[in-house]
Structures are given as C-alpha cells and as structure tokens.
Amino acid sequence: MNFFNTQPSTDEGNAYSRLYSEVKRLVSLEVENARLIAAEKLTLLLGRIALVAVCFVVSATALVFLSMSVADFLLRGLAPCWTYLIIAAFYIVIIIIAASMRRRLITDPIARFISRVLLDPPAANSPDSTLTGNNHNPTHKEE
C-alpha cells in the first residue's frame, strides 16, 4: 500500500469522472428546470398584464360613451355648464376614493398576484406554517 501515491487508481479515477458527470448533469437539469419555471411564471405574469391592459382600454372607451350619455340625459333638465360640472365632480370623487384606498384596491392585489406567481406556496408540514397557525394537516386534531 503506497500512501504517497498521488495518482488515483483507475477505479478511483473512473468513480471521480462518473461523480463529476452526474453532478454536471444534475446542475444542468436544475438550470433547465429554473428556466422552465421562470418561463411559465413570466408567461402568467405577461398574460395577466395583457388582459388588464385590454380591459382598461375597453373600460375607458365604455366610460367615455357612458359619460356622454349621462351628459345628454342631464342636458334635458340642466344648463350645459352644470351638466359637465356634475360629471367632472363625479370623476373627482372617484379619484379621491381610489387615491385614499390605493393600498387596498391596487397595491395589495398586485402584490398578492405577483407573490402567488413568483413564489411557491409553503408546504403544509413546514415549520413556517406551524408558526403562523396555518397548519392544514388533516391528521392534526385540535383539542
């Protein structure tokens, strides 16, 4: 037995090359998995953004026509200046409500959606779920 031999035997060299090739394969599979997950989540995110954009354009167009019909209706009984002031005041009130509730109406739903798309839900038996009280284990009985 030679302790000073730095050259691995052919069996050890073969084992190291197999280990290296397996680690290399594992890393390439993990990278490919990450790319596929990123593509899936980006597709979901961009699809939702496109849907919101289309809904916004259609809603804005409908709102313009609705405003014109309300103005036409109010012109039958009021002067034109009062009619347009009433419609403008209605939109100002809506803007004030939206600005005062922006976190609840805009920020929180966007944050929930993005976190749902980008982050995986925690496992049912993870330590985090027991700390927050969200233990959904069906075998767990509360007393």
Word description of this protein:
By secondary structure, the chain is mainly α. The protein has helices spanning 10-75, 80-100, 102-118, 127-132. 0% of the residues are buried.
Number of helices: 4
Low-confidence regions? 133-143
* Rg over C-alpha atoms, rounded to the nearest angstrom: 31 Å
Our estimate of the beta-strand percent is under 5%
Give the helix proportion (percent range): over 70%
Amino-to-carboxy terminus distance:
65 Å
Please tell me what the overall shape is.
Answer: rod-shaped
Structural class: mainly alpha
Element pattern in H and E: HHHH
Biggest β-sheet description: none
Mean pLDDT over the residues:
81
Record the SSE blueprint.
Layout: H1 10-75, H2 80-100, H3 102-118, H4 127-132
Helix pairs in contact: 1-2
Short description:
The protein has four helices and no strands. With 143 residues, the protein is mainly α. Helix 1 packs antiparallel against helix 2.
List keywords for this structure.
single chain, 143 residues, mainly alpha, 4 helices, 77% helix, rod-shaped, disordered C terminus
